[in-house]
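Weekend entry, working from home. Most of the wet-lab plans are on hold until the incubator is repaired, so I used the time to fold the two sequences that have been sitting in the queue since the last round of cloning. Logging both here for the record. First:
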Amino acid sequence: MLNSKLPDVGVTIFTVMSRLAAEHQAVNLGQGYPDFDPDPELLSLVNRAMLDGHNQYAFMPGIAALREAIALKTTQLYGANYHADSDITVTSGATQALMTAILACVHPGDEVIVLEPNYDSYVPAIRLAGGIPVPVALTPPTPSHPTFRPDWDRVRAAITPRTRLLMINFPHNPTGAVLNDADLDALERIVAETGIYLISDEVYEHIVFDGVPHASVARRPALAARSFVISSFGKTFHTTGWKIGYCCAPANMTEEFRKVHQFMVFSVATPLQVGLAVFMAEPRHYLDLPAFYQTKRDQLAAGLATTRFKVLPSPGTFFLMADYSAVSDLPEAEFARWLTLNHGVAVIPIAAFYGDPHAATSNRQLVRFCFAKRAETLDLAIERLRRV
């Protein structure tokens, strides 16, 4: 019998809930992907790249034009100074970038701090690298502070001489939390005191609301110098099925990153890179994203306000959380299943993003809704939720 490297890992909650949604004709507000097409101009550019013969292996780090476009964008938005040749690598989605960064710098026995709740690929990747995940819980919402937030004193206390990495993800999936300047100040102090490295998962960098700028670690030279900063074209341009992202890091860190990258995927789909490089020449394609998604957030929040769900603020991402305590006292996973089967709307339990999803501290009667959907999809979901 094969001795599993991940004996505790089964089918993800996203697969489970999406399958239930399909089987029961539910509106799927669970898995985080748009139900609308990307910009026709982008599709045309990728199609043209194929017809023009860009169909063979790309250069291992990514085509030069796309890396240059990424470097220009990060300079204009964050004042970052990433060199296209030595500091930027195009990846097969952000998940591959995360795995690559972890494998590049985590050795057996190294500790890696992860903030809970967290995206479900983090802990398995750490374990595959031989590392030891060290969970540190985000402070949960309160009436006076209704969003999750990091407790940097708690993070600092969890760091030991064996700590190699701190993984952060803001805007945060699943809670929608974002960082501010005070958070970056605290991170700078931690890095200066301990010398740890950061993986900053910033796939929702362009989906931050209410006029607030994204607090990328790339804004701070002291943080950028020790960070793998990861983003996703799939989230930014509504192309999650293309699986294309990128990683920015200093040259010495990128050198180690690419050693792993070349043996994971070697290179990423060439026509997609060619099309994206041209598409990025117009900044409005990502600068207009906050307003685009804020309209959808507000539509879903206003609709949920007419139901028995209590909406929590969503400062970023294309997710929002809602409290269902006025509806049911079921644990979150059971409630999500019940809602799908009985009312035809699929959601994701926040408890699924914790190491122990059955623990009382993981179950706060919260579920996550994805609003990256057409207006009519959101309207149908709201109509069904009003009957709950």
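Second, folded right after the first finished:
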Amino acid sequence: MWLLYAVGSAFFAGVTSILAKCGIRKTDSTVATAVRTIVILIFSWVIVGIVGSADEISLIDARTLVFLILSGAATGASWLCYFKALQTGDINKVVPIDKSSTVLTILLALIFLQEGISIPKAAAVIVIAAGIFLMIEKKDVEIKDSRGGAGWILYAAGSAVFASLTAILGKVGISGVESNLGTAIRTCVVLVMAWLMVGIRKKQQEVRQIPKIELIFICCSGIATGASWLCYYRALQEGPASIVAPVDKLSVLVTVVFSYFVFGEKLSRKAAAGLVLLTAGTIAMAAL
């Protein structure tokens, strides 16, 4: 059953990227992240109410709570980086780099969670890494954008690093708490972090200036993210992080397909070959 939850997480995560891209064409990415987190927070606590796990808050021990908070902080950092990268880069380039967190997650799971890695699994990791490498064009590797700020590829890389930390910290943090409740608690942390960044950057006034159509897309992306999270952390609770994380990363297929039809973004032959390797390695990882 956990594998089905992981697949559901991948689908909703792929849809999230498309909806988010539509919602940040004019809206600042940090502001959009803060707004959509409100939607996710409401979504997650409604689910907690439905499953009736709210009363378990008092049973959460200090260690679990600390890891949930750390996982939420890592998620917030990953989101801020990811949506900044989406705003300035092509979605079918940003997403593969973000999905490179798969490789790092597997390595961290091996080190900190003692999840073993066999020779076939190691081979699958190499195939995934090769696929990601092929999807990154030489011209994409720019450390600065046209305005002299950090280039989108740096934000995408930062998103990948924090996403891998999210998976590991989340796996530890939900070991002693109902998955939906854990997701809701983490979302509270993300909300605080996102709005704190809005305050630091003095972007509060821009919230009222968000175009209505973009606000709709931002809210829809929040709903999709909430659904992805609920599936993902339920899968993490029941299955190994070294397999759940790769399956979740298949969302890149959903994103690439939708980016072609919605934004007209096409993959080069090299990038397409990389996508095939990335997919094949991920499927092999899930099957091992």
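Plan for Monday: verify the second prediction. Residues 2-287 form one domain.
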